[in-house]
Amino acid sequence: MEQYRKIKAIISGGGTGGHIFPALSIANKLKELNPDTEILFVGADGRMEMERVPAAGYEIIGLPVAGLQRKLTLSNFALPFKVIKSVNMAKKVIRKFKPDIAIGVGGYASAPLLWAATRLGIPTLIQEQNGFAGLTNKILGKKADCICVAYEGMERFFPADKIVLTGNPIRKEIVPATAEMKEEAFKFYNLDPAKKHLFIVGGSLGSGTLNNAMKKWITEGCPGGEDIEIIWQCGKYYKPSVDTFMNEAREKGLGGETFRNIMYSDFIKRMDLAYADADVVISRSGASSISELCAAHKAAIFVPSPNVTEDHQTHNAMALVNKDAGMIVKDSEAVEKLMETACRLIEDPEKIALMEKNVAELAKRDAAMTIAEHIYKTIK
Asked: Which CATH code for domain 8-168+365-379?
């Protein structure tokens, strides 16, 4: 199609799945629009993207850049010689690849690559996933040509005339549940359609507090959980300790009848079905998680991780809470209050319906396509 001509794009950033997944979604959409489009990734040596990106079928070049501390200036990098080397390498990569645009998704490698691109006159676009902009993107945004954001009110961090509200790219299979999806979910997870369903998901390393809340609830006899079935993603790192706890709980007869209705795993393969059957979801409030919950139209209780920069997960969650589209329990209070709050909500169908209605209004259906369209506009 003439509208989507072949282009050459460099995509930089990574460090965490929250940066890598949107980057791959954008790349996949650009290739879908024109299979001849050439895409090169630039990441940070030793970081997650150096494995994930090649696994997805794309070439990636690693820069020896280190983490940022306070300000995005050469003198304040933890390892300034590595940064200088990274910037020089980025310039060489750009001169050799000759991109039409450089796209930054946040993370270590975005800094030298987009800085070099700006110096060389290459159009730049930034995708900010969170409701509180990361340090790298805040600085780079001053020179960027276009800034794609997922939340309203981002004028606090970026020039208003450059901002486009696009939402975050998510997995295609995450959609509002149909009757067929719910039926499939009940069969796949061997659930009782007559019961209510709670889905607890904390990520690979972010599950600790949620797991402790579950353990306390089980130890106390699962109060309020008589008619609830639970799917619990406990995270790979925590799986051995959860196994030990659950075996001991089974031997001691903890949790009463509800104990048999708890299914746990380190990783949930069919997230679409786990969302589909859930009446309520308990989740951390990373950008991708929130975007998926909006797309799935799910009532959720958020427990923002305290171990993130600028407390951005709280900002993400409050964007929904302020619109009656979600609830929040502080990490420091979660062990005591989380399961009580969840059991109370799951028995309040009117509250759930209101949250589902409001969260649906926040969903951005095809963020990757919207971002792709702005990539083409920025090139022109």
From this structure: 3.40.50.2000
Contact criterion met (CB below 8 Å) for 146 and 376: no
Tokens of 165: 């509200």
Question: For residue 132, what pLDDT is reported?
Answer: 87
How does pLDDT run across 126-158, given as a tens digit for each residue? 999 888 887 888 889 999 999 999 988 999 999
Regarding beta strands 59-63 and 228-233, do their DSSP bridges make them parallel or antiparallel, or are they unpaired? unpaired
Residues in the chain predicted with pLDDT less than 70, given as ranges, are: 1-2, 17, 66-81, 204-205
47-66 b/e (C-beta count within 10 Å ≥ 16 → b): bbbbebbeebebebbbbbbb
Q: Residue 125 in 3-state DSSP?
A: strand
Task: Kindly report, as residue ranges, where domains of CATH 3.40.50.2000 are found in the chain.
Answer: 8-168+365-379, 179-360
Architecture per CATH, 179-360: 3-Layer(aba) Sandwich (3.40)
Burial class of residue 176 in the structure, from the number of CB atoms within 10 Å of its CB (0-12 exposed, 13-18 middle, 19+ buried): middle
What's phi and psi for 240, nearest 5 deg?
-60, -40
**Which letter, b or e, does each residue of 114-127 get, where b requires 16 or more Cβ atoms within 10 Å of its Cβ?**
bbbbbeeebbbbbb
**Interhelix angle for 287-296 vs 17-33, to 10°?**
60
* Bridge pairing between strands 146-149 and 300-302: unpaired
3-state secondary structure of 20: helix
- In whole angstroms, what is the distance from residue 55 CA to residue 84 CA? 29
For residue 75, the tally of other CB atoms under 10 A from its CB is 7
pLDDT at 290: 93
Q: Which two tokens stand for residue 323?
A: 């619109």
